[in-house]
TrEMBL record:
Lineage, broadest ranks: Archaea, Methanobacteriati, Methanobacteriota, Methanomada group, Methanococci
GO biological process, one term: mismatch repair
Coiled-coil annotated residue ranges, if any: none
Organism field: Methanococcus maripaludis (Methanococcus deltae)
Designated name of the protein: A/G-specific adenine glycosylase
EC number: 3.2.2.-
Cofactor requirement: [4Fe-4S] cluster
Residue ranges of domain HhH-GPD in the record: 39-190
Classification via InterPro entries: DNA_glycosylase (IPR011257), HhH-GPD_domain (IPR003265), HhH_base_excis_C (IPR023170), MIG/MutY (IPR044298)
Superkingdom classification of source: Archaea
Amino acid sequence: MAYELYFVKNILNWYSENRRIFPWRYTFDPFKVFISEIMLQRTRAENVIEPYKKMLNNFKSVADIEKVNQNELTRILNTLGLKYRVKRLKNISESFCENYSCNIPNNQNDLLNTSGIGQYICNAILCFGYGMKYPIFDTNVLRIFERFFGVKSMTKSPHKDKKMWDFAEKLLPEENYVDYNYSLLDFAAKVCKARNPCCKECPLNYYCKYPDKYVNSTKT
């Protein structure tokens, strides 16, 4: 338990001074979170800012997206590539309108029963859109957990590993869980990077299990 408390406390402290600022954060608007999460898939967050702003200038709800021609969505999102996201955004919006009167559900069951919504986007909508206590977990968060805690996923699709999702949920603090979830994303992007991680400057390096020479050199 001491490791878990150390991890949460220090990563939140780091985040308070190093957080990234994006227009979709802390809106607590499920629509804005929904469109941003679709756009952020396999794309650098910095590249999403302008297309995200264009989306909000043109669409205020899933009902607006449900009505629009798919070519219009393509025109706005073409700078991001990955054209499948246009169809996915359109299909999910149509499903929300058909099944939930153009509202975005506020529970896991309805979200996960919507084709195109996986566990990550589901939890992101609930946490970042509705302010509910749900964990987030993806390959970037897995990298942090693997390095610090020494945990491993034994599945071919770690982002779908229930044991890892349960582990992520266990770490969630009772308060500040929205900040904590964002801190994981920013920490993975700025410190615990896939290549050339900043181990020497890492605020978690004293207890980190990652076998890096920079980590070892800081333990005196």
